Amino acid sequence: ERTMAGSRPPTESASQHLFLGLIVVVVTLYKRYVVSPNGVEMEHVISEGGLHIFQPFMKKTHRTLLNDRNIWQQCVEDVHTGSFWMDRDDKPVDIWEDLAIEIWKDSEFLTDDVVGYEYWCNILTPEIPLSWHKDKDEKLMETKREWSHPAMGAVLYGYPHEFEGGELEVITSELPPTNPEAELESIQASYDRLIILNVTHWHRVTPITAGFRVTFAVNIWKQRPTSLRVKPRKA
């Protein structure tokens, strides 16, 4: 990630209100402008809760390909039985693996001990919600009741979806959402927005009341999770 010459100075803003018994804090701790993968000016906001928000993010070629809803629907169908895995040193075999690399390649969180990427797609509707959860090794939890978490996670809103509701809410501490002292941040799922977050904290998508919401998610891991599928590698 490269800071643009003549970039605007960091700014600070804050707002706070009560929401369903939780304290909702939306704080812009730091803002700067950087060069996106598309070579244009991209806003990079760091919230007080540690969320990194980039917009606009995608390359022009990715934007064009991902404007087709069918490619998203196929991705959702492909991950119906579980998400996919790509080793860190693997070459991408499709647009999703190319996006995974693009999302993380310049990130401070892609440390030397990261071994690879877990990725999947979601299409949420009023009938298909996403409630409070922490990202984890699902198979390990199911079979041994043991917690194992990714290092960090990212969500990209790469389709020009139209919906009502559907905000990403993230608890910014280790407290559960049932604790009235928990603070959360609520971020809109705007088109071509990338959010990097600590997925070991509780997070959810608020109920969608109309339309559909499309997401590509990529977690980076320091230990490979169990039972993820790997796409065939080109010879």
Q: How is this structure best summarized?
A:
This protein is mainly beta. It has helices spanning 60-66, 69-78, 95-104, 138-144, and strands at residues 13-19, 22-35, 41-47, 52-55, 84-87, 116-124, 130-133, 152-157, 163-165, 168-171, 183-187, 193-197, 203-205, 208-211, 213-221. The chain is globular.
Detailed description of the structure:
The structure is a single chain. With 235 residues, the protein is mainly beta. It is built from 4 helices and 15 strands. A hairpin with a 4-residue loop joins strand 3 (41-47) and strand 4 (52-55). It is globular, with a radius of gyration of 18 Å. It starts with 12 loop residues before the first strand and ends in a 14-residue tail after the last strand. The model is unreliable at 1-27 (pLDDT under 50).
Order of H and E elements: EEEEHHEHEEHEEEEEEEE
Q: Write down how many β-strands occur, each being a DSSP E stretch of 2 or more residues.
A: 15
Q: How much is the average pLDDT?
A: 85
Strand coverage percent: 35-45%
Low-confidence stretches: 1-27
Shape: globular
Radius of gyration: 18 Å
**How many DSSP H or I helices?**
4
Amino- and carboxy-terminal Cα gap = 31 Å
Q: Characteristics of this structure?
A:
globular; 13-stranded mixed sheet; disordered N terminus; 235 residues; 15 strands; 37% strand; mainly beta; single chain; two-stranded antiparallel ribbon
